[in-house]
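User: Structure with pyridoxal-5'-phosphate, tokens only please.
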Amino acid sequence: MRATKAIIHLDYLKQNIAEIKRFVKPGVKMCIAVKADAYGHGAVECAKTAVASGADFLAIATVDEGRELRDAGIKTPLLMLSLCAPEEIADAVSLDITPFVFDEEYIRLFAEEVQRQNKAPYSVHLAVDTGMGRIGCEPKNAAVIAQKIADTGVLVQGGTATHFAVSDVDSKEGRDFTELQFKTFTDAITLIRNAGLNPGLCHCCNSAATIDHPEMQLDMVRPGIIVYGYYAEEISKAYLEKKGTPLTLRPVMTLVSTVSAIRRFEAEKSVGYGRTWKAEKETDIGVLTIGYGDGWVRRFALNGVPVAVNGKSYPIRGRICMDQCMIDLGLDNKNVHRWDAAVLFGDSAEGALQTADDIAQKTGTISYEITSCITRRVPREFKE
Ligand SMILES: *Cc1c(COP(=O)(O)O)cnc(C)c1O
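Assistant:
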């Protein structure tokens, strides 16, 4: 295996889910998001661990993601959170993927395919747009669309869902909007019930809402990022401690590389493309075998993200290349030897001095983007 790899702690994944369960009310089902290759952690392995830890559903984004899980023998219901193309619907149905639906055309396409494959009754979840502004029907039309589902005669409304836009924001404005979304959602559910229809499992909580708004859990929660060990933005560790509901998460992924060479640079010698950095005085430069082709992207260097080797942190010098980047070890560094592991982010037990969240905060993004953008070239090494 390449020395540059992502160590995936399935044991931490299990611990995180157990921690999250303390916040989930008895009887509430869990749909764990394993979309985008489980936020970069490896969908099949993470899905198996999630199911062993009690996941009732797994959330995916694409039909291909569903196929990968089914091919691995996973029988758990799969909820597909994004729409697929019409030409993928045959596969979606044959793989027993439960789609989010919200408009007549998409409902009709699924119904026709279900009929063709003789798979009735087939479960779909109605998505309601209460303020996310992505997919979902208008809340006032919820009963009308629910009736369209029923009218197909082959689809059943297994659930009704909405998605929060700012549940991870700790401000009055944010909280008010989440409350409004929740109210709009429960009103839409009432419309469906008043029309004599069954809304099925009602669910709206992502990670932040699951932890911060237990009163909104309804029949099922859909956590993602917290499962992988990162707090949902402003619903931070400190915030939850202050609130009196502490949550201890461990980052599941540790990204490591190696110091493949250590080279003496005299003053004025430059490092890398564009010659953006020159040694001020003599120093030793370590060459790491990781670059933007691995998801270790160029902007990390611009924002002074350091790299840990044997418990100390060293600055990246020059631009990050596709396959390599360079760090400044200083002269005659006794702490670092050739082939030592360089730890880019992850759990402190693996020698990491920062998490993906720390990097995200420095570089204007979110932990989700950092872990899910670690590319396929980086082998995942699973630890139980
Ligand atoms: C991705 C996603 C989730 C999980 O979100 P987290 O913020 O990672 O908890 C839940 N529901 C929907 C519809 C999503 O798209």
